[in-house]
Amino acid sequence: MLKAERQKFIMTKIALEQKVNTITLALDLSVSEDTVRRDLNELNKKGLLEKVYGGAIPIAEKPTSVFDLVVVNGGKKDIIGHKALSLIADGQVIIMSGGTTNLAFTKLLPSDLKATIYTYSLPIAMQLAQHPSVEVIFIGGKLQKNAMVTIGMDVVQVLSKLKADICFMGSSSINVRLGLTEMGYEVSLVKKAMMEASDNVVCMVTSEKLDTKMPYVVCELNQLNIIITDLNPDAPILEEYAKAGVQLM
């Protein structure tokens, strides 16, 4: 198969499935994994997909401003947000990570909620700034421009001094064997500090991120108190997560 044909196949598959795996592509195309990696790297350089650990995902549409973030799978994230509402209460100290799942969640918070929310996500801080009764504390640090979150030791040090009732953590990927994983090392450190500062850890993850992995481990599954997905908790794909002892919502 010619390179152009292989790459057309890859782009069609990623459009249909929202992710591709290097090993699976090599089998589908009857080529080596190195050949697939070269194709993915070339498509990544052209801006046609985003190369990630073990495969690729669709390229996210870039917003024209920080006030105009694109929320992919918005319906799934609203389902997760509505489930998470049952975990909040007046008077709580809450930590929120970045990500559009948490951004969707903040838009659902009841207008009479009285709570203190710490976040290192600039878009989430700006969304919360519109809430009439929530005290918002933005944790400053080095700005990671693609995700619009702060990272680095400044963020870790602030988190290490907090004692929160609950944290809501978005996820790049999760699987039963490795637990919660992230693409970036610094982000993984911030999320570890976020967990250490919280009595309860809630992972918010859309179903297409289940059974995927990134290079840097944040925590094992048994360190999470609750996993919230857009699926019914008794969905077959969640069976092994339930066996790991995590509460599913």
UniProtKB/TrEMBL annotation:
Query: Where does the HTH deoR-type domain start and stop, copy by copy?
Result: 3-58
**Entry keywords, A to Z:** DNA-binding, Repressor, Transcription, Transcription regulation
SMART domains annotated for this entry? DeoRC, HTH_DEOR
What Gene3D superfamilies does the entry give?
3.40.50.1360, Winged helix-like DNA-binding domain superfamily/Winged helix DNA-binding domain
Q: Which SUPFAM superfamilies match?
A: NagB/RpiA/CoA transferase-like (SSF100950), Winged helix' DNA-binding domain (SSF46785)
Show the GO MF annotations: DNA binding; DNA-binding transcription factor activity
Stored InterPro entries = Carb_Metab_HTH_regulators (IPR050313), DeoR-like_C (IPR014036), DeoR_HTH (IPR001034), NagB/RpiA_transferase-like (IPR037171), Tscrpt_reg_HTH_DeoR_CS (IPR018356), WH-like_DNA-bd_sf (IPR036388), WH_DNA-bd_sf (IPR036390)
Family matches, as PROSITE patterns = HTH_DEOR_1 (PS00894), HTH_DEOR_2 (PS51000)
Protein name listed in UniProt: DeoR/GlpR transcriptional regulator
